[in-house]
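Regression test case RT-17, inverse folding.

Input:
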């Protein structure tokens, strides 16, 4: 232990150096290992769901006798692209409208289908719907600032019934460290402070709990703030 009377601070011992090296190794290995494990697990889950639906004459594993991890993913991608290509055509759109008409007449199935369809359109239709900019808003009270993502301008009954002088802006305020959950809030336009940082940089800031800040200049590396130790 260092004292005020020590001339020079003592060097960390062997165990402290090994501990620091071990933690540094974990920081390097953990993201790579978890990413590979998640991708490998996802491939296995898709294979287990898709491959049993494929006839044996079209399944290469029936001829070579080897379990090819990721083969079901390839079949799923090809099948999905084919369905999307057909759905864009006149015949595909007609079939979809006919099927949705039948679904709308079925009480329980109608509720399940409509909910899943809205979720799928929200998640996958990124070209048409996406956050516009990152912003700062005072939430949950004045004087406390939170990162938010500007969605759209409030419309319809929400905009008409709100007692504000100016328009309302829809802002999604994410939670940390999971930015997929959060709160949809409507702020007056003058209370929303737009930021120059990109959506991706703002998301990194939220996920890292304020430890990874976007670079000051484009092209620089993000600034990583050290964790303050309790005294």
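Golden output:
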């Amino acid at each position: 232990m260092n004292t005020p009377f020590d001339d020079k601070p003592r060097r960390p011992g062997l165990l402290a150096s090994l501990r620091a090296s071990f933690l540094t190794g974990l920081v390097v290995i953990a993201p790579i290992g978890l990413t590979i494990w998640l991708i490998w697990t996802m491939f296995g889950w898709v294979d287990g769901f898709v491959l049993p639906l494929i006839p044996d004459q079209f399944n290469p594993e029936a001829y070579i006798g080897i379990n090819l991890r990721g083969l079901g993913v390839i079949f799923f991608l090809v099948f999905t692209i084919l369905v999307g290509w057909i759905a864009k055509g006149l015949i595909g759109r007609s079939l979809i409208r006919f099927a949705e008409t039948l679904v709308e007449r079925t009480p329980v199935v109608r509720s399940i289908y409509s909910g899943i369809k809205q979720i799928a359109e929200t998640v996958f239709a990124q070209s048409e719907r996406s956050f516009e900019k990152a912003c700062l808003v005072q939430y949950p009270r004045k004087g406390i600032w939170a990162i938010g993502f500007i969605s759209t301008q409030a419309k319809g009954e929400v905009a008409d019934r709100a007692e504000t002088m100016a328009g309302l802006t829809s802002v999604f305020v994410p939670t940390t460290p999971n930015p997929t959950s959060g709160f949809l809030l409507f702020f007056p336009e003058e209370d929303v402070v737009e930021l120059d940082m990109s959506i991706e940089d703002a998301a990194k800031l939220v996920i890292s709990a304020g430890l990874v800040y976007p670079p000051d200049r484009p092209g620089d590396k993000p600034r990583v703030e050290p964790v303050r130790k309790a005294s």
